[in-house]
Design a protein that fits this description.
- It is a single chain.
- By secondary structure, this protein is of the alpha/beta class.
- Helices cover 35% and strands 17% of the residues.
- The chain is built from 11 helices and 14 strands.
- The chain has a 12-stranded mixed sheet with strand order 3-4-2-1-5-12-11-6-7-10-8-9, with helices on both faces. The chain has a two-stranded antiparallel ribbon with strand order 13-14.
- Strand 1, helix 1 and strand 2 (37-42) form a beta-alpha-beta unit.
- Helix 1 (19-27) packs across helix 11 (314-337) and helix 7 packs across helix 8.
- It is globular.
């Protein structure tokens, strides 16, 4: 099957943010349809409104379809969802905009679960507005974790750096209590697996960050390194994970030593995302560890520039590219790692299981 048969869903996100602008800009290049079949979930009315302000891009002729199952190859498809006549107020947080985001997200997730999409790329949402609209999750990561199989890990990725998070959207005051040796060991194992299957790294090297300044300074500035993080690194290493640490975040990033590793495991949100976004302003957010593929731009709704036509679409474009690449690599990994002896053709073309094989007897010495 040709690669452009991969169907990539794109949700509209908060209709008062930059989601539609970066989506329209990213999809305006017709060459994208040679890489995949994009299926956008949202309001045609809202899309048209934002398109009027983007005079420097080629207009997009959406093919309107009922679901991703009916998407047309070679076209930019649109599944209309949400309330009719939604009020668009660029730069304004509103429950109406959040409900529009939820409608698109739910509809795309339904098609993903049905197997009609290969991956989903989500445009930014406003978490506060989403909560006010009754959305019971703290973000996209938690939403997809609840809707899918597996244990979700938030990974920020670019050609420069990959950063995974041990804790995600929780207050800083709860970070230390949320860490445990067993959980970190499992996260390191899961990170190794996703680096192998989703990023094509043969045997990943993972740097593990400390929680406290100067990696705890031997216990003077905190005991989490000695009590939790270092034992987790040792156990993971003994289990086959090339994990190293705990390391001071400032030293690792300031010295450029992060480049020696295939990924970095940070203990909390800003510890990982601040250096990542500084080094990779056009990076991608990937929800790893699940049986589905979901990516997004690494920025938020950007209300301060919404509707002004100045939003940079590169992160959205990279999120689409990343979704395509991860789907391809994951499927290739499944083929490569499949046991070649489980089933194979016999003389009459019949597949048999290993247990059915009659192997020649080995003579006794």
């Amino acid at each position: 099957m040709s690669d452009n048969w991969l169907k990539i869903g794109i949700t509209q996100g908060d209709t008062n943010g930059v989601g539609w602008e970066v989506t329209l800009k990213a999809l305006s290049n017709p060459m994208l349809c040679e890489l995949c079949t994009p299926v956008v979930y949202g309001s045609k009315q809202v899309a048209d409104l934002y398109a009027k302000g983007l005079t420097d891009i080629e207009p997009i002729n959406f093919y309107i379809c009922a679901s991703a199952a009916d998407a047309r190859r070679g076209s930019v498809n649109l599944v209309e969802c949400g309330e009719r006549g939604v009020k668009v107020e660029p730069g304004v947080a509103s429950e109406a905009a959040a409900r529009a985001a939820v409608a698109a997200l739910d509809r795309a997730t339904e098609d993903l679960a049905a197997g009609d999409l290969d991956a989903v790329v989500t445009a930014p949402i406003n978490k506060e507005s989403m909560q006010a609209a009754g959305f019971p999750y703290t973000g996209h990561t938690e939403y997809f974790a609840a809707k899918s199989e597996g244990e979700a890990t938030m990974i920020m990725c670019s050609e420069v750096l990959r950063v995974a998070l041990a804790t995600v959207h929780i207050p800083v005051e709860r970070v230390a209590a949320s860490l445990s040796k067993d959980a970190l060991v499992e996260q390191l194992k899961a990170l190794r697996q996703t680096l192998k299957q989703d990023f094509g790294v043969v045997e990943p090297r993972i740097a593990v960050l400390a929680l406290n300044p100067h990696a705890g300074d031997g216990g003077l500035l905190g005991t989490e390194e000695n009590d939790i993080i270092r034992p987790a690194v040792v156990e993971a290493y003994e289990g086959g994970v090339l994990a190293f640490g705990p390391m001071s975040a400032d030293g690792l990033f300031a010295s450029g030593a992060y480049a020696k590793y295939d990924a970095v495991l940070a203990m909390y949100h800003d510890q990982g995302l601040t250096p990542f976004k500084t080094l990779s302003p056009d990076g991608v957010n990937f929800t790893a560890g699940l049986d589905v593929v979901r990516t997004s731009p690494d920025h938020g709704v950007a209300y301060d520039i919404a509707g002004k036509g100045v939003a940079d679409e590169q992160s959205m474009r990279n999120a689409i590219y990343a979704a395509i690449d991860i789907v391809r690599r994951r499927r290739a990994y499944e083929r490569w790692s499949r046991n070649p002896l489980e089933h194979f053709e016999r003389e009459k073309g019949k597949d048999v299981s290993v247990k059915d094989l009659k192997l020649p007897e080995v003579p006794e010495e």
